[in-house]
Design brief:
The protein is built from 15 helices and 8 strands. The chain is α/β, with parallel strands linked by helices. It has 2 domains: about 180 residues, Rossmann fold, CATH 3.40.50.720; about 140 residues, N-(1-d-carboxylethyl)-l-norvaline Dehydrogenase, domain 2. The protein is globular, with a radius of gyration of 20 Å.
Length: about 350
């Protein structure tokens, strides 16, 4: 039995807390909202994020971050990417011994173009972290909290640390594989949100399954193209954190990014969409970061480019589709080896 701090009391943090709790770990779930944490501790619910789900008794809510991480052996980061550096800077002075850092967030930081593991390594000194591990894959919080079958990937540069996290989480409802390709797992998990935004957008425009299938297929090629240029293993993108995550995020009503794209396709502005969602839509920031990465690395990413124009340059969604369909002819199968 381990003491684990889960930093982020949203839907995903709460769902992963349930998995850890089912494995008889003591879970300290941290959030900023005092009323939300009071509800978790007194009613054993988190209605805003996981309606009608009961939280087991070995999940304890905290608003004091120092108390939440005191004495734990692992810290699971489950906050939006825009909040990660602030949270890490709050964690750092309160660490008394090295811990394993696990993150289950999916995104890339614009401008710095850092993956989340790189942000953790920058903010937390090496003497205060045993390792950095990412937990990623096709996993909606709503289904995980209901203990429906789910399979994900644990990845770290130190495979024994990935196996440690595998042991923490794996049970009969939540199967965990390991993968040594940290870059590929993070890139796949982040960039699939871009394609999910586009999938929702095509639905909002009234297009059907043909368009979605084409988008997902060419989107996966685009994700792999950038990931491989950054040093990822091509096979990772055919796995859970690549194709698997892409399928679930592009085809489900649970997907925030799909819902946001759907609203965009129906004519809402980006500000209207974000206000309507009330929760982080990671694909928006990731689109900006991926566009910048593609420019820096000289990688062609046409889907990402037109979505960037829709989100940040007021391009009309119909015009974006026309631009994609009117591109110069090319081969489908490309040589991704670099």
């Amino acid at each position: 039995m381990a003491q684990i701090a889960v930093v982020g009391a949203g839907s995903w943090g709460s769902a992963l807390s349930i998995v850890l709790s089912d494995n008889e770990h003591q879970v300290r779930l941290w959030g900023r909202d005092e009323e939300q944490i009071k509800e978790i501790n007194e009613k054993r619910t988190n209605e805003k994020y996981l309606p009608e789900i009961h939280l087991p008794g070995n999940i304890k809510g905290y608003t004091n971050l120092a108390n939440a991480i005191d004495g734990v052996e692992a810290i699971l980061i489950v906050v939006p990417t825009k909040a990660i550096r602030k949270v890490l800077r709050d964690i750092k002075p309160n660490l008394k011994k090295p811990v394993t850092f696990i993150h289950a967030s999916k995104g890339i930081e614009p401008d710095s173009l850092k993956r989340i593991s790189e942000m953790i390594e920058e903010e937390i000194p090496q003497q205060l972290r045993k390792s950095v591990v990412v937990l990623s894959g096709p996993s909606h919080a709503e289904e995980v909290s209901l203990r429906q079958p789910t399979t994900v990937t644990s990845s770290s540069l130190q495979i024994e640390e990935a196996e440690y996290v595998q042991d923490l989480f794996m049970n009969m409802h939540f199967r965990v594989y390991t993968n040594a390709d940290l870059i590929g797992v993070e890139i796949g998990g982040a960039l699939k949100n871009i394609i999910a935004l586009c999938a929702g957008l095509t639905n909002g425009l009234g297009f059907g399954d043909n368009a979605k299938a084409a988008l997902m297929t060419r989107g996966l090629a685009e994700i792999a193209r950038l990931g491989i240029k950054l040093g990822a293993n091509p096979l990772t993108f055919a796995g859970l954190s690549g194709l698997g995550d892409l399928i679930v995020t592009c085809t489900s009503i649970h997907s925030r990014n799909w819902r946001a794209g759907n609203m965009l396709g129906k004519g809402m502005s980006l500000d209207e969409v974000l206000n309507n969602m009330g929760m982080a839509v990671e694909g928006v920031r990731t689109t900006k970061a991926a566009f910048q990465l593609a420019e820096r690395e000289g990688v062609e990413m046409p889907i990402t480019s037109v979505l960037y124009d829709v989100l940040f340059k007021s391009k009309q969604p119909h015009d974006a589709v026309d631009e994609l369909m009117g591109r110069v002819k090319t081969h489908e199968v490309e040589d991704l080896s670099l």
